[in-house]
Amino acid sequence: MTKAFILIGMVACLTSVAHAIAGQATFYTPPYVPSSCFGFEDRGVMILAANSGLFNNRAACGQRYRVSCTGRTNLGVLEPCTGRTVDVTVVDLCPGCAGNQVDLSQEAFAVIANTDAGRVNIEYNRI
């Protein structure tokens, strides 16, 4: 029985890793309203502006993602990651973001990385 639980736990961990999307994150600063998804409705500060592919013409509005920092993108901050994850809600489009990039609120970025880094490598999953 114990072996079965261990096996189930291992499969669950591998499944979550297999669905992780690799990319990069930057951050933007307040004001966070109005947003493309919710107009002047305040959705808090744990938010994300999605690249156009992820945003999918507003289909991603309100979707939640768990984001973690995986490393640096430049030589500015050698160890930018905090080792924590953050759960964010898609509220906006990031028109300047590349296809592998998302723009986190400054507060959400600070949970996973040192804001002095400006841009970090990430993995994110829909939750």
UniProtKB/TrEMBL annotation:
Q: Where is the signal peptide?
A: 1-20
Against Gene3D superfamilies, the record matches this protein to: RlpA-like domain
Where found in the cell? Secreted
Q: Where is the Expansin-like EG45 domain?
A: 23-127
Highest taxon of the lineage: Eukaryota
Which PROSITE patterns does the protein's record reference?
A: EXPANSIN_EG45 (PS50842)
User: Where is this protein primarily located?
Assistant: secreted
Ordered alphabetically, the record's keywords are:
Secreted, Signal
Under Pfam families, the record lists: DPBB_1 (PF03330)
Q: Which GO terms describe its cellular component?
A: apoplast
Please list the GO biological process terms of this entry.
Answer: systemic acquired resistance
Q: What is this protein called?
A: Expansin-like EG45 domain-containing protein
- Give the source species: Centaurea solstitialis (yellow star-thistle)
